Amino acid sequence: MFKFTHLVALLLSLCSLATATAAETLPAPEGPVLLTVSDNIAVTNIGETAQFDLAMLQALGETEIVTDTIWTPGTHRFTGVLLDTLLGAVGAQGARLQATAINDYTVEIPATDATAQGPIIAYAMDGKPMSRRDKGPLWVIYPYAADPQYRTEVIYSRSIWQLDRMTVVE
């Protein structure tokens, strides 16, 4: 009887662990999907992809970058999720990202750009959602004003707007 009690306790522990693991998976989006991340990711929600609506991106934690850009007049406050945080949320394992816009334009971003002081996936400018006309709904924004290293043609070329999908490449 003693061994049976231990077996039941072990099974209950395993069930509890399985429930906790399932609770930590990425939920399915409830609103329109703004971003799909695929390939070389450990956390998915739709097939082998991780799909995010606006609320899911916001839930990852908001970061703001106040900067000017070469595409917009004046200084603006961009709000979004750190690229580093997004990649961590999906368990990305790769050396580079292929970031693709709604019109299929694609740029390559090294995974090393994803740092705590690096780019964000912006979903708001000056507190307002960005329309497609305003380079939205998602735009990769680097902290251009923070450091001259972010004011280069290479960095500008990685600043893709109307972003809607990312592929993690080994």
Give the topology, please.
Elements: H1 2-23, E1 35-38, E2 49-52, H2 54-59, E3 63-68, E4 75-82, H3 83-89, E5 96-101, E6 106-110, E7 120-125, E8 128-129, E9 139-141, H4 153-158, E10 163-169
Parallel strand pairs: 1-10
Antiparallel strand pairs: 1-2, 3-4, 4-7, 5-6, 5-10, 7-8, 7-9
How many separate helices? 4
Average pLDDT metric = 88
CATH architecture: Alpha-Beta Complex
Total domains, how many? 1
Query: How many strands appear in the DSSP assignment?
Result: 10
Spans where pLDDT lies below 50 across 5 or more residues: 1-24
- State the separation between the terminal residues, measured CA to CA: 52 Å
Radius of gyration: 19 Å
Biggest sheet: strand arrangement: 2-1-10-5-6
Q: Looking at the structure, what is the overall shape?
A: globular
Any overview of this molecule?
The chain has 170 residues and is of the alpha+beta class. It has one domain (27-169): Oxidoreductase, molybdopterin-binding domain (Sulfite Oxidase, Chain A, domain 2). Helices cover 24% and strands 30% of the residues. It contains four helices and ten strands; from the N terminus they run αββαββαβββββαβ. The strands form two sheets. It has a five-stranded mixed sheet. Strands 3, 4, 7, 8 and 9 form a five-stranded antiparallel sheet that branches. The chain starts with a helix and ends with a strand. This is Molybdopterin-dependent oxidoreductase. InterPro entries: OxRdtase_Mopterin-bd_dom (IPR000572), OxRdtase_Mopterin-bd_sf (IPR036374).
